[in-house]
Amino acid sequence: MSDTAYDITADAAPHAPRAPRVPYDWNPQRPSPMPHHRYRPYQDRVDVPALERSWPSARIERAPLWVPVDLRDGNQALAEPMDTGRKRRFFELLVSMGFKEIEVGYPSAGRADFDFVRDLAALSARGEIPEDVTIVVFTPAKPDLIDRTFAAIEGLPRTVVHLYVPTSPVWRDVVLGRSRAEVRAVAEAAAARMARLADARPHADIRFQFSPETFNLTEPDYVVELCDGLTELWDASPGRPVTHNLPATVEIATPNVYADQIGYLHRSLARRDSVILSVHPHNDRGTGVACAELAVLAGAQRVEGCLFGNGERTGNVDLVTLALNLHAQGVDPMVDFSDIDAVRETVEHCNRLPVHPRHPYAGDLVHTAFSGTHQDAISKGFAQHARRAAELGVPESQAPWGVPYLPIDPADIGRSYEAVIRVNSQSGKGGMAYLLRTTHGLDLPERMRPGFSRVVQDATDDSGREATPKELYELFETAYLVPGRDGGVRLDAWTTDRAPDGAHRFVCTLQVGDRAGDFEGAGNGPLSAFTEALAAAGITVDILDYSEHAVEAGGGAEAVAYAECRVDGVVCWGAGLDTSVLTASVQAVLSAVNRAGVGR
């Protein structure tokens, strides 16, 4: 060691030897008793070809074609399927929101779906369905059911007939008992029959859709073979494209695997400019939304799903979340969710299923903060947003959004700000102050807020529930306004005037406990004169802070005053509310006096 080097051990005091270190177990989990060995990972069930991925660096810059399947796939999953009235209401909702392709049923499965499609044909004939809305119907690959489906769509000017065939090995082996070649023959025979029936209706615009059911468990090369065969058989062209829909019928892997599968089809399909590549994710692993988004990055142009994710098992992918995710990224979702509560109310009525209060974007509580730190950040964010809008000279609804904890402006989807901040025992002073300001017009001074926060927390701790804005005001009134009007020290009568020399005089009758007397004080203002009158009664008061503002109330204006006072050495806040600013200020000082315990 050099002479200038510092030996960090030279001056160290002796210490006992350290105990041997035990390696830290960063993952202290232990094996579960569940028989996970019974299940095969996806790579043992389906081959996903290796490819050079482009989707990880892609961006979604425009909305795909959204296709709601609530009236078919979603309806099949209901314990009590929709009747005609509920179906009609749901259909009208979807049209009003701007969906351009709507799958409406499985008309060969039963009379209810058949009759509903016939009702739509009658509506269309009367011009009650917009010309740019296309009806989609669903059929299996059976001749009699295909014929029944075409009978249902008679008279509809624009239709997509959606053919599905189970294709995965487990379906071919366990359910159908057919080889790859035999399943392909079934699909092509059905497709040819559909083409003949469509050709017999030259005045109708009938296009075709094919779903290789359980696509995500089917050999990718076989899917390409099937889809290319039908693209050619249907003679698809850019002006009359075919839709190939690739369902994740039951989720089997992480979303990146589905994206790779979609990316492979996107690159491998023939006549790609004549194919609309569609996806239909389910949510068995809870990743339906992620699968859909990554699939679009990988080349999908169309997404089938349900509003709020209804569907078999854990549901179809949720179109509400998908569309509003785009909205939150500055991309037009191309469907209207500007009144999300009306949408939710209709869907809940038709499905007879509730939407969870924590459902993304649409749940009752998703824009609500109970936590004090969240409330403080949101309150400051709203204030900054208002300032930014004023600086830009635009309405707040048009200003760039950047409020903490709120990925979108609740007003964009028809939500008011009343439910954004709500108060319980976890809430902080910022949230309580925000609610008093926005619901009752009371803007508490910053230093007054911690004391009121304790009042509210005591009440909510005792009750164990949320405090409504009305209850919040009642707590404020009891804690701060009532002591200014009634307490151990009471102002029975008072007057104030101003002498020629500018000094103010305050003359009053005070009740202090069980003693009453007349007192007088003088000062450079009414409040300082009042404190002198209090001093004459034996009560020492120093006003440390004071503020006031107007409050709109019941069609008239009131004034509220806040006073922080040192009362016989005790610091307390008080508040007063009256049509007179002076009366409110006197009440605020007297409130602080009584809250300090004088006269008890």
Structure report:
This protein has 17 helices and 14 strands. The chain is of the alpha/beta class and 600 residues long. Strand 5 (205-213), helix 7 (220-233) and strand 6 (242-248) form a beta-alpha-beta unit. Helix 13 (429-440) packs across helix 15 (469-485) and helix 14 packs across helix 15 (469-485).
Present the secondary structure layout.
Layout: E1 65-68, H1 70-76, H2 84-97, E2 101-105, H3 111-125, E3 134-140, H4 143-152, E4 158-166, H5 169-176, H6 180-199, E5 205-213, H7 220-233, E6 242-248, H8 255-268, E7 275-281, H9 288-297, E8 302-305, H10 319-328, H11 340-351, H12 372-392, H13 429-440, H14 449-463, H15 469-485, E9 489-498, E10 504-512, E11 515-523, H16 526-536, E12 541-553, E13 556-567, E14 570-578, H17 581-595
Parallel strand pairs: 1-8, 2-3, 3-4, 4-5, 5-6, 6-7, 7-8
Antiparallel strand pairs: 9-10, 10-11, 12-13, 13-14
Q: What characteristics describe this protein?
A:
disordered N terminus; 17 helices; 14 strands; 3-stranded antiparallel β-sheet; alpha/beta; 8-stranded parallel β-sheet; 19% strand; single chain; elongated
Mean pLDDT: 91
Distance between the termini: 76 Å
Strand content: 15-25%
Class of secondary structure makeup: alpha/beta
Shape: elongated
**Major beta sheet, strand line-up:** 1-8-7-6-5-4-3-2
How many DSSP E strands?
14
Over the alpha carbons, how many angstroms does the gyration radius reach? 36 Å
The largest sheet is: 8 strands, parallel
Helix content: 25-40%
Low-confidence stretches: 1-12
Q: What's the tally of helices? A: 17
